[in-house]
Specification:
It is a single chain. By secondary structure, the chain is of the alpha/beta class. It has helices at residues 7-20, 33-40, 44-56, 96-103, 126-139, 141-145, 154-162, 181-193, 208-216, 234-242, 265-278, 334-344, 350-361, 364-390, 416-425, 456-471; strands at residues 60-63, 67-70, 112-113, 176-179, 199-204, 220-227, 231-232, 248-251, 282-285, 309-314, 326-329, 396-397, 405-409, 428-429, 431-432, 445-449. It has an eight-stranded mixed sheet, with helices on both faces. The protein has a four-stranded antiparallel sheet with strand order 12-13-16-15, with helices on one face. Helix 5 (126-139) crosses helix 13 and helix 14 crosses helix 16 (456-471). The longest helix is centred in the last third of the chain and has 27 residues, at 364-390. It is globular and about 75 Å long.
Length: 473
Protein backbone atom coordinates (compact mmCIF):
# COMPACT_ATOMS: atom_id res chain seq x y z
CA UNK A 1 0.00 0.00 0.00
CA UNK A 2 1.19 3.51 -0.78
CA UNK A 3 2.40 5.73 2.04
CA UNK A 4 0.37 8.63 0.69
CA UNK A 5 -2.13 10.07 3.12
CA UNK A 6 -5.80 9.32 2.79
CA UNK A 7 -7.96 12.30 1.79
CA UNK A 8 -9.13 13.04 5.33
CA UNK A 9 -5.52 12.99 6.55
CA UNK A 10 -4.52 15.43 3.84
CA UNK A 11 -7.31 17.78 4.88
CA UNK A 12 -6.35 17.35 8.54
CA UNK A 13 -2.75 18.31 7.78
CA UNK A 14 -3.86 21.40 5.82
CA UNK A 15 -6.00 22.56 8.73
CA UNK A 16 -3.19 21.82 11.21
CA UNK A 17 -0.76 23.85 9.14
CA UNK A 18 -3.29 26.71 9.01
CA UNK A 19 -3.51 26.60 12.82
CA UNK A 20 0.27 26.47 13.25
CA UNK A 21 0.64 29.56 11.04
CA UNK A 22 -1.92 31.48 13.09
CA UNK A 23 -4.79 31.26 10.61
CA UNK A 24 -6.94 30.13 13.53
CA UNK A 25 -5.90 31.50 16.91
CA UNK A 26 -6.08 29.57 20.22
CA UNK A 27 -9.63 29.45 21.53
CA UNK A 28 -11.16 30.32 18.14
CA UNK A 29 -14.10 28.28 16.88
CA UNK A 30 -13.53 26.53 13.56
CA UNK A 31 -16.10 26.86 10.76
CA UNK A 32 -18.89 24.30 10.80
CA UNK A 33 -18.47 20.85 9.26
CA UNK A 34 -20.73 21.84 6.40
CA UNK A 35 -18.78 25.05 5.75
CA UNK A 36 -15.42 23.24 5.78
CA UNK A 37 -16.81 20.53 3.52
CA UNK A 38 -17.93 23.12 1.00
CA UNK A 39 -14.70 25.14 1.24
CA UNK A 40 -12.45 22.14 0.54
CA UNK A 41 -14.77 20.38 -1.87
CA UNK A 42 -14.95 17.15 0.13
CA UNK A 43 -17.74 15.10 1.68
CA UNK A 44 -19.19 15.67 5.15
CA UNK A 45 -17.79 12.29 6.23
CA UNK A 46 -14.26 13.22 5.10
CA UNK A 47 -14.47 16.50 6.99
CA UNK A 48 -15.68 14.78 10.17
CA UNK A 49 -12.81 12.27 9.94
CA UNK A 50 -10.28 15.07 9.50
CA UNK A 51 -11.60 16.89 12.59
CA UNK A 52 -11.37 13.67 14.61
CA UNK A 53 -7.74 13.33 13.62
CA UNK A 54 -7.04 16.97 14.51
CA UNK A 55 -8.60 16.30 17.89
CA UNK A 56 -6.48 13.17 18.47
CA UNK A 57 -3.37 15.07 17.40
CA UNK A 58 -4.10 17.74 20.01
CA UNK A 59 -4.94 20.72 17.78
CA UNK A 60 -8.61 21.13 18.59
CA UNK A 61 -11.17 20.22 21.21
CA UNK A 62 -14.73 19.33 20.30
CA UNK A 63 -17.39 20.68 22.63
CA UNK A 64 -20.80 19.05 22.70
CA UNK A 65 -23.44 21.03 20.76
CA UNK A 66 -20.96 23.87 20.34
CA UNK A 67 -18.38 22.90 17.71
CA UNK A 68 -14.62 22.55 17.34
CA UNK A 69 -12.22 25.03 18.97
CA UNK A 70 -8.46 25.50 18.62
CA UNK A 71 -6.68 24.35 21.76
CA UNK A 72 -4.70 26.90 23.74
CA UNK A 73 -1.70 24.54 24.07
CA UNK A 74 -0.77 23.23 20.62
CA UNK A 75 1.32 20.08 20.10
CA UNK A 76 4.96 20.38 19.29
CA UNK A 77 5.86 19.64 15.68
CA UNK A 78 7.61 16.36 14.97
CA UNK A 79 11.36 16.29 14.40
CA UNK A 80 10.98 16.33 10.62
CA UNK A 81 8.68 19.34 10.79
CA UNK A 82 5.53 17.40 9.96
CA UNK A 83 2.77 16.21 12.23
CA UNK A 84 2.86 12.45 12.66
CA UNK A 85 0.14 10.46 10.98
CA UNK A 86 -0.90 6.83 10.71
CA UNK A 87 0.97 5.41 7.70
CA UNK A 88 -1.28 2.31 7.77
CA UNK A 89 1.66 0.02 6.99
CA UNK A 90 2.22 -3.47 8.44
CA UNK A 91 4.85 -3.54 11.19
CA UNK A 92 6.60 -6.21 13.22
CA UNK A 93 5.84 -6.31 16.95
CA UNK A 94 8.52 -6.69 19.61
CA UNK A 95 6.93 -5.49 22.83
CA UNK A 96 6.95 -8.68 24.93
CA UNK A 97 9.85 -7.76 27.22
CA UNK A 98 8.68 -4.18 27.68
CA UNK A 99 5.11 -5.23 28.51
CA UNK A 100 6.24 -7.85 31.02
CA UNK A 101 8.57 -5.32 32.68
CA UNK A 102 5.70 -2.90 33.19
CA UNK A 103 3.45 -5.70 34.52
CA UNK A 104 5.85 -7.05 37.16
CA UNK A 105 5.22 -4.42 39.89
CA UNK A 106 1.59 -5.61 40.13
CA UNK A 107 2.72 -8.44 42.43
CA UNK A 108 4.40 -6.02 44.84
CA UNK A 109 2.55 -5.56 48.10
CA UNK A 110 4.27 -2.23 48.70
CA UNK A 111 3.00 -0.46 45.57
CA UNK A 112 -0.40 1.10 45.04
CA UNK A 113 -1.80 -0.78 42.05
CA UNK A 114 -2.92 1.77 39.50
CA UNK A 115 -1.45 -0.24 36.63
CA UNK A 116 -3.28 -3.53 35.94
CA UNK A 117 -6.92 -2.92 34.98
CA UNK A 118 -9.11 -4.65 37.57
CA UNK A 119 -12.07 -3.64 39.72
CA UNK A 120 -11.50 -3.92 43.45
CA UNK A 121 -12.31 -7.38 44.87
CA UNK A 122 -14.45 -5.61 47.46
CA UNK A 123 -16.95 -4.94 44.64
CA UNK A 124 -17.29 -8.66 43.93
CA UNK A 125 -19.48 -11.30 45.65
CA UNK A 126 -16.44 -13.41 46.50
CA UNK A 127 -17.99 -15.20 49.51
CA UNK A 128 -21.08 -16.21 47.53
CA UNK A 129 -18.89 -17.64 44.76
CA UNK A 130 -16.87 -19.58 47.33
CA UNK A 131 -20.05 -21.04 48.88
CA UNK A 132 -21.17 -22.20 45.44
CA UNK A 133 -17.73 -23.72 44.90
CA UNK A 134 -17.89 -25.68 48.15
CA UNK A 135 -21.40 -26.86 47.35
CA UNK A 136 -20.36 -27.98 43.86
CA UNK A 137 -17.42 -29.89 45.38
CA UNK A 138 -19.83 -31.88 47.54
CA UNK A 139 -22.51 -32.48 44.92
CA UNK A 140 -20.40 -32.98 41.79
CA UNK A 141 -17.05 -34.29 43.00
CA UNK A 142 -16.71 -36.85 40.17
CA UNK A 143 -17.58 -34.28 37.49
CA UNK A 144 -15.03 -31.84 38.88
CA UNK A 145 -12.38 -34.58 38.95
CA UNK A 146 -12.85 -35.68 35.34
CA UNK A 147 -12.26 -34.05 31.95
CA UNK A 148 -15.24 -31.98 30.84
CA UNK A 149 -16.55 -31.88 27.29
CA UNK A 150 -14.09 -30.00 25.01
CA UNK A 151 -16.85 -27.54 24.06
CA UNK A 152 -17.70 -26.84 27.70
CA UNK A 153 -20.38 -28.10 30.07
CA UNK A 154 -23.88 -28.01 28.53
CA UNK A 155 -25.21 -26.06 31.54
CA UNK A 156 -22.55 -23.38 31.08
CA UNK A 157 -23.10 -23.06 27.33
CA UNK A 158 -26.86 -22.90 27.88
CA UNK A 159 -26.55 -19.97 30.26
CA UNK A 160 -24.15 -18.14 27.93
CA UNK A 161 -26.52 -18.68 25.02
CA UNK A 162 -29.44 -17.33 27.05
CA UNK A 163 -27.57 -14.06 27.51
CA UNK A 164 -27.89 -13.45 23.75
CA UNK A 165 -31.65 -13.94 23.69
CA UNK A 166 -32.26 -10.27 22.85
CA UNK A 167 -29.71 -10.14 20.03
CA UNK A 168 -30.80 -9.66 16.44
CA UNK A 169 -28.46 -12.56 15.64
CA UNK A 170 -28.56 -14.86 18.66
CA UNK A 171 -25.81 -17.24 19.75
CA UNK A 172 -26.81 -20.91 20.08
CA UNK A 173 -25.44 -23.35 22.64
CA UNK A 174 -23.62 -25.29 19.94
CA UNK A 175 -21.95 -22.08 18.71
CA UNK A 176 -20.02 -21.65 21.98
CA UNK A 177 -16.67 -22.98 23.17
CA UNK A 178 -15.76 -22.43 26.82
CA UNK A 179 -12.13 -21.30 27.20
CA UNK A 180 -9.52 -20.58 29.84
CA UNK A 181 -10.13 -16.86 29.92
CA UNK A 182 -10.53 -14.33 27.12
CA UNK A 183 -6.89 -14.48 26.04
CA UNK A 184 -7.19 -18.16 25.10
CA UNK A 185 -10.31 -17.32 23.09
CA UNK A 186 -8.45 -14.58 21.21
CA UNK A 187 -5.39 -16.76 20.65
CA UNK A 188 -7.54 -19.57 19.22
CA UNK A 189 -9.29 -17.06 16.98
CA UNK A 190 -5.99 -15.68 15.67
CA UNK A 191 -4.63 -19.15 15.00
CA UNK A 192 -7.83 -20.14 13.22
CA UNK A 193 -7.96 -17.27 10.72
CA UNK A 194 -4.32 -16.20 10.31
CA UNK A 195 -0.87 -17.74 9.98
CA UNK A 196 2.62 -16.50 10.92
CA UNK A 197 3.56 -13.42 8.92
CA UNK A 198 -0.06 -12.37 8.26
CA UNK A 199 -1.19 -8.82 8.94
CA UNK A 200 -3.91 -8.06 11.50
CA UNK A 201 -5.65 -4.69 11.88
CA UNK A 202 -5.71 -3.33 15.43
CA UNK A 203 -6.96 -0.19 17.14
CA UNK A 204 -4.49 2.50 18.12
CA UNK A 205 -4.35 2.67 21.06
CA UNK A 206 -5.28 -0.93 21.80
CA UNK A 207 -5.05 -3.34 24.72
CA UNK A 208 -1.41 -4.35 25.13
CA UNK A 209 -2.44 -8.02 25.52
CA UNK A 210 -3.56 -7.94 21.90
CA UNK A 211 -0.12 -6.79 20.79
CA UNK A 212 1.52 -9.39 23.05
CA UNK A 213 -0.55 -12.16 21.43
CA UNK A 214 0.36 -10.97 17.94
CA UNK A 215 4.02 -10.82 18.93
CA UNK A 216 4.08 -14.35 20.35
CA UNK A 217 2.17 -15.75 17.35
CA UNK A 218 4.45 -13.90 14.90
CA UNK A 219 1.71 -11.86 13.26
CA UNK A 220 2.25 -8.31 12.04
CA UNK A 221 0.00 -5.38 12.90
CA UNK A 222 -1.44 -2.48 10.98
CA UNK A 223 -2.65 0.26 13.32
CA UNK A 224 -5.94 2.02 12.65
CA UNK A 225 -6.56 5.44 14.28
CA UNK A 226 -9.14 5.12 17.03
CA UNK A 227 -11.21 7.97 18.46
CA UNK A 228 -11.93 8.25 22.16
CA UNK A 229 -15.68 8.76 21.51
CA UNK A 230 -16.42 6.94 18.24
CA UNK A 231 -14.00 4.03 18.24
CA UNK A 232 -11.95 2.66 15.39
CA UNK A 233 -11.89 4.76 12.21
CA UNK A 234 -14.16 2.74 9.90
CA UNK A 235 -13.09 4.82 6.90
CA UNK A 236 -9.42 3.84 7.26
CA UNK A 237 -10.34 0.27 8.23
CA UNK A 238 -12.35 -0.11 5.02
CA UNK A 239 -9.37 1.07 2.98
CA UNK A 240 -7.15 -1.72 4.32
CA UNK A 241 -10.01 -4.23 3.94
CA UNK A 242 -10.60 -3.18 0.35
CA UNK A 243 -6.95 -3.45 -0.61
CA UNK A 244 -6.67 -6.96 0.83
CA UNK A 245 -3.99 -5.82 3.24
CA UNK A 246 -5.18 -7.70 6.34
CA UNK A 247 -6.34 -11.21 7.16
CA UNK A 248 -8.24 -10.27 10.32
CA UNK A 249 -9.12 -7.40 12.65
CA UNK A 250 -9.09 -7.33 16.47
CA UNK A 251 -11.08 -4.67 18.30
CA UNK A 252 -13.44 -3.86 21.15
CA UNK A 253 -16.76 -2.10 20.68
CA UNK A 254 -17.77 -1.68 24.32
CA UNK A 255 -15.78 0.02 27.11
CA UNK A 256 -12.62 -0.40 25.04
CA UNK A 257 -9.37 -0.64 26.96
CA UNK A 258 -7.80 1.93 27.32
CA UNK A 259 -10.15 4.57 25.83
CA UNK A 260 -13.41 3.44 27.44
CA UNK A 261 -15.74 4.34 24.54
CA UNK A 262 -18.88 2.49 23.39
CA UNK A 263 -19.42 2.38 19.64
CA UNK A 264 -22.94 3.23 18.48
CA UNK A 265 -25.12 0.46 17.08
CA UNK A 266 -24.94 2.16 13.70
CA UNK A 267 -21.15 1.94 13.67
CA UNK A 268 -21.25 -1.66 14.89
CA UNK A 269 -23.62 -2.47 12.03
CA UNK A 270 -21.26 -0.84 9.52
CA UNK A 271 -18.37 -2.82 10.95
CA UNK A 272 -20.25 -6.12 10.59
CA UNK A 273 -21.30 -5.27 7.05
CA UNK A 274 -17.69 -4.44 6.13
CA UNK A 275 -16.45 -7.74 7.54
CA UNK A 276 -19.01 -9.61 5.47
CA UNK A 277 -18.47 -7.58 2.28
CA UNK A 278 -14.67 -7.95 2.29
CA UNK A 279 -14.60 -11.39 3.97
CA UNK A 280 -12.27 -10.23 6.74
CA UNK A 281 -12.94 -11.90 10.13
CA UNK A 282 -13.43 -9.54 13.05
CA UNK A 283 -12.21 -10.81 16.43
CA UNK A 284 -14.30 -8.92 18.99
CA UNK A 285 -12.87 -8.64 22.50
CA UNK A 286 -15.87 -7.80 24.71
CA UNK A 287 -14.27 -8.48 28.08
CA UNK A 288 -15.35 -5.09 29.48
CA UNK A 289 -18.80 -5.11 27.85
CA UNK A 290 -20.64 -6.11 31.02
CA UNK A 291 -19.27 -3.06 32.83
CA UNK A 292 -20.77 -0.42 30.48
CA UNK A 293 -22.44 1.99 32.89
CA UNK A 294 -25.64 2.36 30.86
CA UNK A 295 -25.99 -1.43 30.88
CA UNK A 296 -27.46 -1.76 27.39
CA UNK A 297 -24.46 -2.12 25.10
CA UNK A 298 -24.76 -5.06 22.74
CA UNK A 299 -21.67 -6.39 20.96
CA UNK A 300 -21.12 -6.29 17.21
CA UNK A 301 -21.70 -10.06 17.32
CA UNK A 302 -25.35 -9.34 18.07
CA UNK A 303 -25.70 -8.03 14.49
CA UNK A 304 -23.63 -10.74 12.80
CA UNK A 305 -25.82 -12.82 10.47
CA UNK A 306 -22.96 -14.12 8.28
CA UNK A 307 -20.67 -15.52 10.99
CA UNK A 308 -17.70 -13.24 10.29
CA UNK A 309 -17.43 -11.97 13.89
CA UNK A 310 -15.53 -14.15 16.37
CA UNK A 311 -16.84 -13.09 19.76
CA UNK A 312 -14.49 -13.41 22.79
CA UNK A 313 -15.38 -12.73 26.41
CA UNK A 314 -14.76 -13.82 29.99
CA UNK A 315 -15.74 -13.08 33.59
CA UNK A 316 -12.25 -11.88 34.54
CA UNK A 317 -13.13 -8.18 34.69
CA UNK A 318 -16.77 -8.37 35.73
CA UNK A 319 -16.55 -11.00 38.47
CA UNK A 320 -13.40 -12.99 39.24
CA UNK A 321 -10.12 -13.23 37.31
CA UNK A 322 -9.11 -16.34 39.27
CA UNK A 323 -11.91 -18.37 37.69
CA UNK A 324 -10.06 -18.21 34.33
CA UNK A 325 -13.39 -18.74 32.63
CA UNK A 326 -14.03 -17.34 29.18
CA UNK A 327 -15.81 -18.29 25.99
CA UNK A 328 -15.79 -17.79 22.25
CA UNK A 329 -18.60 -17.79 19.68
CA UNK A 330 -16.73 -18.20 16.40
CA UNK A 331 -19.49 -18.21 13.80
CA UNK A 332 -18.37 -19.89 10.59
CA UNK A 333 -14.95 -20.59 12.12
CA UNK A 334 -16.34 -22.69 14.99
CA UNK A 335 -15.11 -26.09 13.77
CA UNK A 336 -11.55 -24.86 13.29
CA UNK A 337 -11.43 -23.28 16.76
CA UNK A 338 -12.76 -26.50 18.28
CA UNK A 339 -9.93 -28.47 16.64
CA UNK A 340 -7.35 -26.00 17.92
CA UNK A 341 -8.84 -26.06 21.42
CA UNK A 342 -8.61 -29.87 21.56
CA UNK A 343 -4.94 -29.94 20.59
CA UNK A 344 -3.93 -27.09 22.91
CA UNK A 345 -5.65 -27.02 26.31
CA UNK A 346 -8.02 -29.96 25.48
CA UNK A 347 -10.76 -28.66 27.75
CA UNK A 348 -11.66 -26.10 30.42
CA UNK A 349 -11.96 -27.14 34.07
CA UNK A 350 -15.46 -28.19 35.12
CA UNK A 351 -15.42 -26.57 38.58
CA UNK A 352 -15.61 -22.90 37.50
CA UNK A 353 -18.19 -23.79 34.87
CA UNK A 354 -20.42 -25.49 37.44
CA UNK A 355 -20.13 -22.52 39.77
CA UNK A 356 -20.71 -19.87 37.14
CA UNK A 357 -23.65 -21.59 35.45
CA UNK A 358 -25.46 -21.77 38.79
CA UNK A 359 -24.56 -18.16 39.60
CA UNK A 360 -26.01 -16.93 36.29
CA UNK A 361 -29.08 -19.15 36.45
CA UNK A 362 -29.99 -17.86 39.91
CA UNK A 363 -30.11 -14.29 38.64
CA UNK A 364 -27.26 -13.31 40.97
CA UNK A 365 -24.92 -12.32 38.14
CA UNK A 366 -27.44 -9.90 36.61
CA UNK A 367 -28.03 -8.35 40.04
CA UNK A 368 -24.28 -8.10 40.65
CA UNK A 369 -23.74 -6.27 37.36
CA UNK A 370 -26.25 -3.56 38.28
CA UNK A 371 -24.35 -2.87 41.49
CA UNK A 372 -20.92 -3.16 39.86
CA UNK A 373 -21.72 -0.68 37.08
CA UNK A 374 -23.02 1.89 39.54
CA UNK A 375 -19.97 1.52 41.80
CA UNK A 376 -17.48 1.74 38.94
CA UNK A 377 -19.17 4.79 37.43
CA UNK A 378 -19.04 6.61 40.78
CA UNK A 379 -15.39 5.67 41.40
CA UNK A 380 -14.31 6.67 37.90
CA UNK A 381 -16.16 10.00 38.12
CA UNK A 382 -14.52 10.85 41.45
CA UNK A 383 -11.08 9.80 40.21
CA UNK A 384 -11.51 11.83 37.04
CA UNK A 385 -12.24 14.96 39.06
CA UNK A 386 -9.22 14.29 41.29
CA UNK A 387 -6.88 13.85 38.31
CA UNK A 388 -8.11 17.07 36.73
CA UNK A 389 -7.58 18.91 40.00
CA UNK A 390 -4.18 17.37 40.82
CA UNK A 391 -2.38 17.26 37.47
CA UNK A 392 -0.75 20.28 35.79
CA UNK A 393 -2.42 22.45 33.17
CA UNK A 394 -2.47 20.84 29.74
CA UNK A 395 -3.33 17.37 31.05
CA UNK A 396 -6.18 15.78 29.09
CA UNK A 397 -8.52 13.00 30.19
CA UNK A 398 -11.95 12.02 28.87
CA UNK A 399 -14.62 10.22 30.94
CA UNK A 400 -15.03 6.58 29.84
CA UNK A 401 -18.43 4.93 29.31
CA UNK A 402 -17.50 1.70 31.06
CA UNK A 403 -14.68 -0.17 32.75
CA UNK A 404 -12.40 1.30 35.39
CA UNK A 405 -9.46 2.95 33.63
CA UNK A 406 -8.57 6.51 32.71
CA UNK A 407 -6.53 7.30 29.59
CA UNK A 408 -4.52 10.37 30.56
CA UNK A 409 -2.53 12.56 28.16
CA UNK A 410 0.38 14.30 29.81
CA UNK A 411 1.10 17.94 28.96
CA UNK A 412 3.89 19.02 26.60
CA UNK A 413 4.67 15.49 25.39
CA UNK A 414 6.11 14.34 28.71
CA UNK A 415 7.21 10.71 28.52
CA UNK A 416 5.15 8.34 30.67
CA UNK A 417 7.96 5.74 30.57
CA UNK A 418 10.08 8.08 32.68
CA UNK A 419 7.09 8.74 34.91
CA UNK A 420 6.66 4.97 35.40
CA UNK A 421 9.98 4.62 37.20
CA UNK A 422 9.60 7.84 39.17
CA UNK A 423 6.13 6.78 40.32
CA UNK A 424 7.34 3.29 41.21
CA UNK A 425 10.03 4.82 43.43
CA UNK A 426 7.16 6.50 45.28
CA UNK A 427 5.20 3.24 45.58
CA UNK A 428 2.79 3.88 42.68
CA UNK A 429 2.35 1.42 39.79
CA UNK A 430 1.04 2.88 36.53
CA UNK A 431 1.05 1.70 32.91
CA UNK A 432 2.83 3.86 30.28
CA UNK A 433 0.92 4.54 27.07
CA UNK A 434 3.78 3.36 24.84
CA UNK A 435 2.77 -0.32 25.15
CA UNK A 436 -0.74 0.37 23.83
CA UNK A 437 0.72 0.93 20.36
CA UNK A 438 3.36 -0.68 18.17
CA UNK A 439 5.02 2.69 17.62
CA UNK A 440 5.88 5.50 20.05
CA UNK A 441 2.84 7.65 19.30
CA UNK A 442 1.24 7.21 22.74
CA UNK A 443 4.34 7.67 24.88
CA UNK A 444 2.87 10.87 26.38
CA UNK A 445 -0.19 8.97 27.65
CA UNK A 446 -0.64 6.73 30.66
CA UNK A 447 -3.41 4.41 31.78
CA UNK A 448 -4.64 4.59 35.37
CA UNK A 449 -6.68 1.84 36.98
CA UNK A 450 -9.28 3.44 39.26
CA UNK A 451 -11.25 0.29 40.05
CA UNK A 452 -10.83 0.86 43.79
CA UNK A 453 -12.52 3.48 45.93
CA UNK A 454 -10.76 6.77 46.65
CA UNK A 455 -9.42 6.01 50.10
CA UNK A 456 -7.20 8.65 51.73
CA UNK A 457 -4.15 6.65 50.58
CA UNK A 458 -5.36 6.49 46.97
CA UNK A 459 -6.13 10.21 46.96
CA UNK A 460 -2.69 11.03 48.35
CA UNK A 461 -0.96 8.85 45.74
CA UNK A 462 -2.90 10.35 42.82
CA UNK A 463 -2.03 13.85 44.03
CA UNK A 464 1.61 12.75 44.33
CA UNK A 465 1.44 11.40 40.78
CA UNK A 466 0.20 14.78 39.56
CA UNK A 467 3.09 16.47 41.38
CA UNK A 468 5.58 14.14 39.67
CA UNK A 469 4.11 15.03 36.27
CA UNK A 470 4.43 18.73 37.10
CA UNK A 471 8.13 18.24 37.97
CA UNK A 472 8.95 16.52 34.68
CA UNK A 473 10.76 18.44 31.96
Amino acid sequence: MSQELFLYETLSERLAEHIRRGGFIPGERLPSVRALSKAFGVSINTTVQSLRKLEMDGYIEVRDRSGAYVRHALPRPAVNGNVSHFPVLPVEISLSEEILRFMEPHISEQALHLGIALPDPGLMPVERIMRLWRDASRRHARMMWDYSHPNGLPAMRRQLSMRSIGYDAGIGEDDILVTNGCMEAMELALRAVTKPGDVVAVESPTYYGTLLALDVLQRRAVEIPTHYRDGICLYTLEQVFRQGQVKACILSCNAQNPLGYVMTDERKQRLVEMASRYQVPVIENDIWGDTVYAGNAQPAKALDHTGMVIYCNSFSKSLMPGLRLGWVAAGRFHDRLRELKQISSITTAAAPQLVMSRFIESGAYAQHLVQLRAALEQQVTEALELVRASFPSGTWVHPPEGGCVLWVKLPEHRDSRKLFQQALNDGIHIFPGSVFSVGPRHSDFMRLNVGSGLTPEVREKIRRLGALVAQMQ
